[in-house]
Amino acid sequence: MDTQGNISWGILGTGMIAAKFARALSMSKTGRLIAVGSRTLDSAARFAETFNIERRYGSYDALLADPDIDAVYISLPNHLHAEWAIRCAEAGKHILCEKPLTVNFAQAKMVIDAVRAHDVFLMEAFMYRCHPQMARLVQLIRDGAIGQVRVIQAHFSYNMGGLRENIRQQHAAAGGGIMDVGCYCMSAARLVAGAAIGQDFADPIGVKGYAHIGKVTQVDEWATAALLFPGDIVANLTCGIQVRVDHALRVWGSTGHIIVPNPWFPDEERGGPAPNARIYVYHDDQDQPTEEVVEAGQYLYTIEADVVARHIRERQAPPPCMTWNDSLGNMMALDAWRKEVGLTFAAD
After folding, report:
1. Residue 233 near residue 149 (C-beta atoms within 8 A)
2. How many CB atoms lie within 10 A of CB 285?
3. Nearest to residue 221, comparing CAs of 304, 164, 144?
4. Half-sphere exposure of residue 121, counting CA atoms within 13 Å on the CB side?
5. What residues have CB less than 8 Å from 57, skipping those under 6 apart?
6. Which fold has domain 128-302+329-341?
7. Which of 145, 203, 293, 294 has its CA 20 to 30 A from that of 86?
8. Angstrom distance (rounded) from CA 150 to CA 193
């Protein structure tokens, strides 16, 4: 890190999300991307040429050995997150790790123990939590905009079709809907339930789940969960990789309800860039909703990268970004959901 607090980044992985983050860093005022590491030098070189990255490494270890790299973005398949987060910590690198942080709670605990021991930053990369839209939603809930929160509904799904080679459809890579997008729904429900009871997050005290496990993929291709939170708040989550459901987040209270039409990608609208995010607050005694316009002024993943830079000295970002305890709670809840549907992985 230089004297102005700017970060030199490296990326592990060369997939779709890595590409999004690389583009984001080109727009960041707090960081620059100097290196990429992949399983092969050819893959790293192709990625580096696309994004004008100076250094390219044909192994993950080689990137971690670069003394000029301050922070590493881990965009590897789910089953590799724990191993490489721990290795990053041991190498003294600050960490932004793609969600889910690990495969299960036990692994997440090991990662957080490692970052504590080696005194490095860690944040689970739920990028939507870094957008001011989520901070505004939390404030509306805490201010009683819809009275006492009673029901939460979160959806995130897409239809991959027959792309069997994709890691999201591979059991060995800890794929499936719950791990890929259900984790978003769980994190959002826990955030809203926490705001409703005056906390940064809340953990469910009851989890029921159902899913279709693919005969070929052996992962959950679509799934749902019913949650019970303190304060008798209930939530319904729906996710999937073989079905397309709307991506809204809805919250019902004693005097009205809130709809967040684009919670996960608030800087996108109908497939294109959107300058502002929107939250709609419906009051039971009014015909029309109040529209809350939330301005960000930056690309979603750029916001996320800049959050890391601003809070790197504290070693974790503040809520509504994912704190260490929030990540631990989310992994525990995901473990419970997977147990309900009978989905286990090698790391379990």
Report:
1. yes
2. 6
3. 164
4. 25
5. 35, 36, 37, 38, 41, 44, 63, 66
6. Dihydrodipicolinate Reductase; domain 2 (3.30.360)
7. 203
8. 9
Question: What is the spatial distance between Cα 164 and Cα 172, in angstroms, rounded to a whole number?
Answer: 12
pTM for the model stands at: 0.96
Q: Cβ atoms within 10 A of the Cβ of 339, count?
A: 13
Class of domain 7-126: alpha beta
Which tokens in the block code for residue 88?
A: 């990053």
Q: How far is CA 20 from CA 61, 127, 182, 300, 331, in A?
A: 23, 11, 21, 10, 24
- pLDDT tens for the chain, residues 1 to 348: 666 778 999 999 999 999 999 999 999 999 999 999 999 999 999 999 999 999 999 999 999 999 999 999 999 999 999 999 999 999 999 999 999 999 999 999 999 999 999 999 999 999 999 999 999 999 999 999 999 999 999 999 999 987 778 899 999 999 999 999 999 999 999 999 999 999 999 999 999 999 999 999 999 999 999 999 999 999 999 999 999 999 999 999 999 999 999 999 998 765 556 678 999 999 999 989 999 999 988 899 999 999 999 999 999 999 999 999 999 999 999 999 999 999 999 999
Domain ranges of the chain: 7-126, 128-302+329-341
Take residue 183 and report the two structure tokens written for it: 């984790």
The CA–CA distances, whole Å, from 35 to 65, 80, 85, 255 equal: 11, 19, 17, 52
Distances (CA, A) of 298 to 21, 69, 247, 275, 304: 13, 24, 21, 8, 10
Quick check: do 7-126 and 128-302+329-341 share a fold?
no
Any residues with CB less than 8 A from the CB of 300 and at least 6 apart, and which? 24, 127, 128, 130, 131, 265, 266, 267, 268
The full DSSP string for 208-277 is EEEEEEPTTT-SEEEEEEEEEETTTEEEEEEEESBS-----EEEEESSEEEEES-SS-TTEETTEE-SEE
Nearest by Cα to 248 from 222, 228, 266: 266
Q: Position of tokens 């990789």? A: 241
